[in-house]
Protein backbone atom coordinates (compact mmCIF):
# COMPACT_ATOMS: atom_id res chain seq x y z
CA UNK A 1 0.00 0.00 0.00
CA UNK A 2 1.18 3.51 -0.78
CA UNK A 3 1.49 5.88 2.15
CA UNK A 4 0.54 8.93 0.09
CA UNK A 5 -1.62 9.74 -2.92
CA UNK A 6 -2.93 12.85 -4.68
CA UNK A 7 -6.65 13.41 -5.11
CA UNK A 8 -8.62 16.22 -6.77
CA UNK A 9 -11.16 18.19 -4.79
CA UNK A 10 -14.56 18.10 -6.52
CA UNK A 11 -16.90 21.07 -7.07
CA UNK A 12 -18.49 20.51 -3.63
CA UNK A 13 -15.11 20.46 -1.82
CA UNK A 14 -15.04 16.67 -1.38
CA UNK A 15 -12.20 14.20 -1.76
CA UNK A 16 -12.30 10.41 -1.78
CA UNK A 17 -10.27 8.59 0.86
CA UNK A 18 -8.70 5.57 -0.86
CA UNK A 19 -10.07 2.18 0.22
CA UNK A 20 -6.59 0.98 1.32
CA UNK A 21 -6.38 3.91 3.75
CA UNK A 22 -9.93 3.34 5.04
CA UNK A 23 -9.19 -0.34 5.61
CA UNK A 24 -5.92 0.33 7.41
CA UNK A 25 -7.59 2.89 9.71
CA UNK A 26 -10.82 0.86 10.14
CA UNK A 27 -12.97 3.67 8.72
CA UNK A 28 -16.39 2.38 7.67
CA UNK A 29 -19.37 3.94 5.91
CA UNK A 30 -21.16 6.18 8.41
CA UNK A 31 -18.14 6.73 10.68
CA UNK A 32 -17.54 10.31 11.77
CA UNK A 33 -14.20 12.00 11.16
CA UNK A 34 -12.85 14.98 13.08
CA UNK A 35 -11.40 17.58 10.70
CA UNK A 36 -8.79 20.08 11.92
CA UNK A 37 -6.08 22.36 10.61
CA UNK A 38 -2.79 21.99 12.49
CA UNK A 39 0.24 24.02 11.40
CA UNK A 40 -1.22 24.57 7.92
CA UNK A 41 -1.95 20.82 7.54
CA UNK A 42 -5.40 19.28 7.18
CA UNK A 43 -5.76 16.48 9.75
CA UNK A 44 -8.54 13.86 9.65
CA UNK A 45 -9.03 11.74 12.77
CA UNK A 46 -11.58 8.99 13.30
CA UNK A 47 -14.06 10.26 15.86
CA UNK A 48 -14.58 7.90 18.78
CA UNK A 49 -17.64 8.52 20.97
CA UNK A 50 -16.91 9.11 24.65
CA UNK A 51 -19.01 9.69 27.75
CA UNK A 52 -19.94 13.35 28.12
CA UNK A 53 -19.20 13.32 31.86
CA UNK A 54 -16.18 11.07 32.42
CA UNK A 55 -14.65 10.64 28.94
CA UNK A 56 -14.85 6.83 28.98
CA UNK A 57 -15.11 4.97 25.66
CA UNK A 58 -16.48 1.85 27.38
CA UNK A 59 -20.08 0.70 27.83
CA UNK A 60 -21.76 3.69 26.24
CA UNK A 61 -25.47 3.04 26.39
CA UNK A 62 -27.24 6.35 25.88
CA UNK A 63 -26.92 8.85 23.04
CA UNK A 64 -28.85 12.06 22.56
CA UNK A 65 -27.78 14.75 20.07
CA UNK A 66 -24.27 13.26 19.80
CA UNK A 67 -23.87 13.27 23.59
CA UNK A 68 -23.07 9.89 25.16
CA UNK A 69 -23.33 8.46 28.67
CA UNK A 70 -21.57 5.37 29.99
CA UNK A 71 -23.21 2.82 32.31
CA UNK A 72 -21.33 4.11 35.36
CA UNK A 73 -22.46 7.73 34.86
CA UNK A 74 -26.05 6.68 34.19
CA UNK A 75 -26.03 4.85 37.54
CA UNK A 76 -24.53 7.88 39.34
CA UNK A 77 -27.08 10.23 37.82
CA UNK A 78 -30.03 7.93 38.56
CA UNK A 79 -28.94 7.69 42.24
CA UNK A 80 -28.87 11.50 42.43
CA UNK A 81 -32.53 11.79 41.41
CA UNK A 82 -33.92 9.14 43.76
Your description of this structure?
This protein is α+β, with helices and mostly antiparallel strands and 82 residues long. The chain folds into two domains: 1-47, Pemi-like Protein 1, Chain: D; 48-82, no CATH class. 20% of the residues lie in helices and 26% in strands. It has helices at 19-24, 71-80, and strands at 33-38, 41-46, 60-64, 67-70. A hairpin with a 2-residue loop joins strand 3 (60-64) and strand 4. The termini are far apart.
Average of per-residue pLDDT values:
89
**Distance separating the two termini:** 56 Å
| Whole-number total of structural domains | 2
Order of helices and strands: HEEEEH
Q: How many helical stretches?
A: 2
Sheet of most strands = 2 strands, antiparallel
The CATH class designation of the largest domain is Mainly Beta
Structural class: alpha+beta
Let me know the number of strands.
4
Beta-strand percentage range:
25-35%
Low-confidence stretches: none
The outline comes out as elongated
CATH topology of the largest domain: Pemi-like Protein 1, Chain: D
- Which CATH architecture of the largest domain is right? Ribbon
Radius of gyration: 18 Å
Helicity, in percent? 10-25%
Spatial strand arrangement across the major sheet: 1-2
Please name the defining characteristics of this protein.
single chain, 82 residues, elongated, 2 domains, two-stranded antiparallel sheet, Pemi-like Protein 1, Chain: D
Amino acid sequence: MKDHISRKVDELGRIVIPSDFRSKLDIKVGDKLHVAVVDNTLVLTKSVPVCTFCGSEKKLNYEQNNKYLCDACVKKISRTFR
